[in-house]
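User: Here's a protein and a ligand (coenzyme A). What would the complex look like?
Assistant: Let me lay out the input and then the predicted complex.
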Amino acid sequence: MKKLFAENILQGKVAFVTGGGTGITGGVARAFAEHGAKLAITSRKEENLAGMKATVEGFGGECFAVAADVRDFDAVEAAIAKTVEHYGKIDIVVNGAAGNFLCAAEQLSANGFGTVVDIDTKGTFNVCRASFEELKRSKGQILNISATLHYLATPMQIHVSAAKAGVDAITRNLSVEWGRHGIRVNGIAPGPIEDTEGMKRLLMPELKEKMMRKIPVGRFGRIADIENAALFLASDAANYVTGVTLVVDGGSWLLGTSLT
Ligand code: COA
């Protein structure tokens, strides 16, 4: 990918990224490391992290992999403590860990709904809460990966819509409560990103063609589009930006074509 930002834009920063092994958040993690950040990635299973660790170390970056389920506050606290022990600090926290599947509301069990809310919303709170003291020390920042599903209504996604609405509330609340500590809190809401596993599975050629016609900018998003938005928000260029969830969707949600 052609680099649009200075290669050292995140030099000296330590980024703790949940769900950073794969997908959109994996792209953000790799892009942060490519731009100078030292990376700590966490996922439920350590084997999900090996690929990203190898990629980052392959281009000479640093990557510390630590397994933790974001639903488990004690495990999150331990992962943060291990990261601080390893790097000495944390400057940037990215909440990317998420659960997702398609299911009609009348078929979704209470536990299915709760599981996604636990991972996305409670998980985001857990990680923010556990990293507060470190972020206060570093005057750091949080980036929450959200969605546009809940701006209108997205069938088969009631659980994720509710969970991401909660994530956006966390972004706004913490930006207000923690601004005085020098902590910025922002989010990114990706639209239809074509090079994710989920989208590849979902998008039959006919559906893709039909959807494409409804995306105002005339193309699907790429993970690189989210990486660039994340680099901007994480960098000093966004020093006066907080409490914002930046929509990166080519205008899709305005036409009700969100499919994330
Ligand atoms: N359809 C309907 N219900 C589902 C489901 C699906 N595809 N997948 C899970 N559930 C329900 C389960 O039936 C269970 O409810 P029940 O006890 O009433 O039966 C509940 O969700 C918990 O499922 P379980 O598999 O025990 O939870 P888990 O913690 O191991 O994993 C997910 C849950 C959502 C994380 C898992 O399904 C998953 O890995 N999904 C893909 C993750 C993903 O796509 N991440 C990228 C996000 S963009």
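Summary: The first helix runs from residue 23 to 34.
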